[in-house]
Amino acid sequence: KAGVxxxxxxxxxxxxxxVTLSCSPISGHRSVSWYQQTPGQGLQxxxxxxxxxQRNKGNFPGRFSGRQFSNSRSEMNVSTLELxxxxxxxxxxxLPPGGQGNYEQxxxxxxxxxxx
Amino acid sequence: xxxxxxxxxxxxxxxxxSAVIKCTYSDSASNYFPxxxxxxxxxxxxxxxxxxxxxxxxxxxxxxxxNKTAKHFSLHITExxxxxxxxxxxxxxxxxxxYKLIFGxxxxxxxxx
Lengths: 116, 113
Description:
heterodimer; A: mainly beta; seven-stranded mixed sheet; four-stranded antiparallel sheet; 11 strands; about 0% helix; B: mainly beta; six-stranded mixed sheet
């Protein structure tokens, strides 16, 4: 199976602009989570989607939003970009629980966002 | 609130020695604990995980132990090799609520040849 893919891989934006990042989960996976990775704050949870519904949201401002489509692909959007939004944005996909539950999450390669 | 503390932040070992990384979680409801390895410029890769109904799990040179009472879990790497050099992250979650992972701050492991 193909792994988690993210596009674009690299992005340079200017303060005040907005950006949309895309994530395609592993085929059959229905849960997608997003994380922000920075040297100072480490890996921080942004949101989680399951069957097109946001199931959980991290402690980020409302400028950060996301959605999931019926094919489980997900997008996240950041509006009014700030310098501090420069980071690696990672998405992870996982199967829904069933029986004993399968909790493993697999990460995509990330989108490196630089805000100037 | 939810928190995972990870120690040490950096660890340097001689090739062939063992390495141990420790994590402590705050939410006693946490019941799933994965470990990820991230090489420079690459994605985090799941290397091993453990659930709260198990005290220890091994996979070749890697093992994870869990102490639910103390809310501690640890990663043990034996017979370290230079290719083990990377940043290791522990995490905790409560999958029945959400797949949200709370990560530790990471440990940079350097294995000296």
